[in-house]
Amino acid sequence: MYSFEYQRATDPQAAAAAISADSDAKFLAGGQSLLPTMRLRLAQPSQLIDVTRIPALKSIAVDANLVTIGAAVCHADVADHAELRRVSPALADLAAHIGDRQVRALGTLGGSLANNDPAACYPAAAMGLDATIVTQRRRIASSDFFVGMYETALEPDELIVSVEFPVPERAAYEKFRNPASHFALVGVFVAKFASGVRVAVTGAAASVFRVPELESALSANFTPESARAVSVPSANLNDDMHASAEYRAHLIPVLAARAVAKANA
């Protein structure tokens, strides 16, 4: 690992100002992706700006219609938050199955979304629940936030402060995970709102995406059978040593059906 300087930011504006002043600096959240990259010498930031102690990024607020989670809240705290589990159990359940216990204790919501790993779980929740990503300067709809593999709409000096998740009528997340990394080979988040159903898929392509065919079928009939009856094309899906594109295409409606069954339970 190369040498670097370390700063602990006190507020979002100070953190962003430090990045603006040094184009080679990086925000440090949970460090679960950045630090391994640095150890492999694939990244060489001049400074790490630690944002995990900023009070504005550490809170969870819950009401009947909206869950707001600070960007520096770790996965374990989302999973264990009693009121959040009551109002949005699918979101808490998703957080409870990210990685292993150490990853959940250190990894953060904002870090996961900003990194936008193709197989990360939180992007599916953000897209499935029609979340709004709030930075120190603007609000970004989830549909505009995820741009491509490891790419988002964030500017280099833009910091996620919180994420607002609307509360659905019903929702659930199911993933077929890699047994070693616990990342999703395919993960499917299904959310039913009064306006219709949203289905978001992670792990299957370069970035999280929605499946209109499943959304239409489930909006008409929110049952596992409706999900299983949908055929998802394999074009543009990931094809690698872990799973073929055809296998991932097969898994999407299967996992959607499991998620619907869980949501209806």
TrEMBL record:
It is an enzyme of class 1 (oxidoreductase). One of its GO terms (molecular function) is anaerobic carbon-monoxide dehydrogenase activity. The keyword Transport does not apply. The keyword Oxidoreductase applies. It holds the Pfam family FAD_binding_5. InterPro entries: CO_DH_flav_C (IPR005107), CO_DH_flav_C_dom_sf (IPR036683), Diverse_Substr_Oxidored (IPR051312), FAD-bd_PCMH (IPR016166), FAD-bd_PCMH-like_sf (IPR036318), FAD-bd_PCMH_sub1 (IPR016167), FAD-bd_PCMH_sub2 (IPR016169), Mopterin_DH_FAD-bd (IPR002346). SMART domains: CO_deh_flav_C. Its EC number is 1.2.7.4. It comes from Paraburkholderia caledonica. Residues 1-170 form the FAD-binding PCMH-type domain. It comes from the Bacteria. Keywords: FAD, Flavoprotein, Oxidoreductase. This is Carbon-monoxide dehydrogenase medium subunit.
